[in-house]
Amino acid sequence: MSIHTRPPTGLFALTLLGCVAVARAARGAQVTMDREGLRAFVPAGIIRCIPLGLACVAGALSLNALAYAKFGTFDPAPLRISRPYANPERINAIDGKSMHAVNIPYGFYTYVVRPNFRLERGFPWIYLGSNTPGHHFPSAKIDLPDHTLAMPYAMPGLFVLATAGCLLAFAIVPALRVAIAVVWLAAIPMSVALFAAVATAQRYTGDFCPLLITAASLGLAGVSALRPFPRFIALGFAGLATAAAVAATWALTLHYQGETLWGVPEEARANYRELRRAVDETLLRRPR
Predict the structure, then answer these.
(1) In angstroms, rounded to a whole number, what is the distance separating the alpha carbons of residues 199 and 107?
(2) What is the residue range of 9's domain?
(3) 206: closest CA among 145, 149, 251, 142?
């Protein structure tokens, strides 16, 4: 049901399961050589993987089927019936679509590249939104470019284990190569969908967490295969990166929910400002 509650993560889950079925089928294929040349045949192992693959396809298509039952269209998120898009100018600016291929470079830059944060002297010290303008993508059709911190900075420990860890495991643990390839290939459809969307937001980086957690587990297996001293260094670096991620998440969430988020009661904002003032005074900083 994940694809119905959060389509990007559900898409990754179904794609990963389908890729596993394909990998097992490929592994079960047997090739024989006879006098007439190369001849392949389908063993029972491949046949057993077919229902799993078909179930994954059916699960993905169920999202469109449910959309048709509810809205009369196969589009899971039809903008034409969404109240925020009642303004014709707004929906025409994105051609009435929630995804565009021209948005992929912008989405990749937003979620993977841009260090969109700043450091200030005042509590909580780490703030979302860089003072340096980001790269401009004139062809992108973005409707809601919310402030977003790219994954390498928002969750450095998890990101490093998932990327550098998988590269390490792929290089030194041959038994993990198929699993690593399957996980990252399965991430392509979900990633393309998120990169192509007309909206970006910090909360959407959470859609990448199932991928990163799965890949990080394989990366840890690679780290575990190192000699004791390199393993100690790698785990120490991962620990520091994780601590940095916790600090960044805590600071960004505190400020966003205390000051930036729409709909926060003024009393809550006042309490947050008082907290900032008290912390700054306690640490001998200039009062606000």
Answers:
(1) 9
(2) 1-76
(3) 149
pLDDT digits 0-9 by tens, 242-287: 999 999 999 999 999 898 888 888 999 999 999 999 999 988 655 4
Cis peptide bond upstream of 133, omega within 30: no
* Number of domains forming the structure of the chain: 2
How far apart CA 18 and CA 12 sit, in angstroms, is 10
With 0.85 as the threshold, say if the pTM is over it.
yes
Q: Are residues 33 and 115 in the same domain?
A: no
User: CB count, 10 Å around CB of 215?
Assistant: 24
Q: Which two tokens stand for residue 133?
A: 């303008």
Final residue before a domain boundary, out of 76, 107, 128? 76
Nearest to 198, CA basis, from 61, 103, 92:
103
Burial of 136 (0-12, 13-18, 19+ CB in 10 A): exposed
Residue 126 DSSP one-character state: E
